[in-house]
Each structure stands twice: as structure tokens, then as C-alpha cells.
Design brief:
20 strands, 8 helices, globular, seven-stranded mixed β-sheet, 331 residues, single chain, five-stranded parallel β-sheet
Length: 331
């Protein structure tokens, strides 16, 4: 027999778990479905651990420029890759535990598994099929599992994943997404970053500070193209001052893989092609919503360019189904 709730949220990222807490505080019987890790990508594999890496890079930068502050240190500070990564993972693990505590404190049921909308108001949860990235936080204690659950309101908060370009798909070894870039086994001596949005430029900055020769390839006429022009220009000057090579209005058209390096064919604005070889390459060309396997097509939920179409209130075209966060796109 199906267990009934007022609200079921699918996905426990910043959109999902905050919604779950507020829903429970307002007196609704609430459950949240998660297949991998409480806190979602942002907390476990995105914003939070990235900022932890950048903090280590910042401290290293200051340590190697102490004379600028009237200080002196014999020798040069160098990174311990394993320790830097371990610190970043521990920061995420601690916050992951914090989300589990919030769920318990606010009496939000956590259901572990893959969710699918079987019909309006009904969610079927199956065992997680997707193999999660490692290292992985432990599954919280006391979670519910496979079964059928019903709710008057179902909120999709399934987030997004890295977008892959045809012919330049990440392989986890030579061509990375942010997943692999966050847990390197060793620091590459050279790095090519495709895309200069928030994800690409953060990793470019981190690896440059850690000593890698970094080249950034951006299709548009400015780095961080969604930012104000003044911010973009200032940022570019600072990045180049750090030693980054930035190629604007350029695109990677082809990639050749070696035994332990990758050579990218980069087409410049004038049509000329330059070959750039680096130890590793990061593909940071945006994200796409996680809409597959949710049963949206069968229920007639409209999608648009890889996102769930919603109005200004997060409502889809099907009553009782909503979408928020990175998976949501406006009608």
C-alpha cells in the first residue's frame, strides 16, 4: 500500500532540501527522494568543495607572496595534492551530515533510490542504478527505500549535469568534467580549459595557482560572459597577470588523445587552427537538466531544451507537478 504525503521533493540539492525543510515547518507531511548524496551536486561536487580547493590555492598564493606583506619565509610553499583534495572532501562530508541532521530535526522522511512519476500524484522509487562518484558520503541512517509513495504536490529538484559536446566527450582520464577535476590524483603540469563560465574559470584559477600552465578557450568575446562587461575585463586582466593564456572567440573543433596527454585543435577568430597539447583538458561548456527517467513524457510534462518548462511559480503544465532549480526552465 502506498504511503501518502502532502509534498514529495525529488532531489536533495539546495533547492530540494531547503524546500523540504520549509514545507515541514509549515505543517506539511514531507518526504524527499535522493539517489546519491544529500545536498546534491552543489554541496558534494560543485560550489562547496570547489571553494574549499580555491581556499587552499588562495593560502598558497599568499604564502608565496609574503614579501608583498612585509613578511619572509625561507623556501617555497608547494601543494600536497592528496591533502588538498582530502580537505575539500571532508568539508563536503561535514555539510552532507548537516543536511541529514536538518531532515531529521524537521521530521522530513528521506527516501533513498531512483524516483519515477508513474501517474499524477504517485512516485515509484526503485533501487539506485546510477553508480555514484567516489569518494561518496555514507547513506544516512533511517532512510526509507523502494516502494510507491503518493502526494498532492510533487516537486522536481533533480538538478543538472555537465553538458558534453559531440566528439569531445569527457572520458574521466584525459578529458575531465568538474567531477574529475575536483579529485585529481596528481597535479597536471599543463591544462586546457574549454569554457570560461563559473565552473571553467574557477578550475583554471585553482590549477594555475597550483603551478599548472593553463590555457582557457572561450567561444564568446569575453571571459565569464554572463557577467557585466567591466567585471569580465577586470577579471581577464587579473587571470592573465597570473599567467593564464586566454583565447577568446575560439573553439575546440577536434581532440586527439595521446598516452597521457591531449591535443586540441583550436579554431581562432580568423579561421586559423592552432594545436594545443596539455596533460589534461576540462570540458566546462555548461550543464543540462536531469530530466531522463522521471516519467515526464508519459504524463505529458512539457520540457524545453533539456529542462522542465515551468511558469513564474514553478508550476509545470500538469497540475500538482512543479520544478525548481537547475532542472527548471521558463515556459
Amino acid at each position: 500500500m502506498a504511503e501518502n504525503y502532502d509534498v514529495i521533493i525529488i532531489g536533495s540539492g539546495p533547492g530540494g532540501y531547503v524546500t523540504a525543510v520549509r514545507s515541514a515547518q509549515l505543517g506539511f507531511k514531507t518526504a524527499i527522494v535522493e539517489r546519491e548524496h544529500l545536498g546534491g551536486i552543489c554541496l558534494n561536487w560543485g560550489c562547496i568543495p570547489t571553494k574549499a580547493l580555491l581556499r587552499s590555492a588562495e593560502i598558497m598564493h599568499y604564502s608565496n607572496h609574503l614579501k608583498d606583506y612585509g613578511l619572509k619565509l625561507d623556501g617555497k610553499v608547494s601543494p600536497d595534492t592528496a591533502a588538498v583534495v582530502d580537505r575539500s572532501r571532508k568539508v563536503s562530508l561535514r555539510l552532507n551530515g548537516g543536511v541529514a541532521f536538518l531532515m531529521k530535526k524537521n521530521k522530513v522522511d528521506v527516501i533513498w533510490g531512483e524516483a519515477k512519476l508513474s501517474k499524477p500524484g504517485e512516485v515509484v522509487v526503485a533501487k539506485t542504478a546510477k553508480k555514484p562518484m567516489e569518494p561518496q558520503p555514507p547513506v544516512p541512517k533511517g532512510v526509507k527505500g523502494e516502494g510507491t509513495y503518493t502526494a498532492k504536490h510533487i516537486i522536481l529538484a533533480t538538478g543538472a549535469r555537465p553538458r558534453a559536446l559531440p566528439g569531445i566527450e569527457p572520458d574521466g582520464k584525459l578529458i575531465w568534467t568538474y567531477f574529475e577535476a575536483m579529485v585529481p590524483k596528481e597535479m597536471p603540469k599543463s591544462l586546457l580549459v574549454m569554457g570560461s563560465g563559473a565552473i571553467g574559470i574557477e578550475f583554471a584559477s585553482f590549477y594555475r595557482t597550483m603551478g599548472a600552465d593553463v590555457t582557457v578557450v572561450e567561444l564568446l568575446p569575453a571571459v565569464m560572459p554572463v557577467e557585466d562587461a567591466e567585471v569580465s575585463k577586470f577579471a581577464q586582466k587579473q587571470f592573465e597577470k597570473q599567467g593564464m593564456k586566454i583565447l577568446l572567440e575560439a573553439k575546440v573543433t577536434k581532440v586527439e588523445k595521446g598516452a597521457n596527454s591531449v591535443t586540441a585543435h583550436v579554431e581562432m577568430k580568423d579561421g586559423k587552427v592552432e594545436k594545443i597539447t596539455a596533460d589534461r583538458m576540462i570540458s566546462a561548456v555548461g550543464v543540462q537538466g536531469n530530466i531522463e527517467g522521471l516519467g515526464l513524457e508519459a504524463l505529458g510534462v512539457k520540457t524545453d531544451r533539456g529542462c522542465v518548462a515551468v511558469d513564474g511559480y514553478g508550476r509545470t503544465n500538469v497540475p500538482g507537478i512543479y520544478a525548481i532549480g537547475d532542472v527548471a526552465g521558463h515556459v
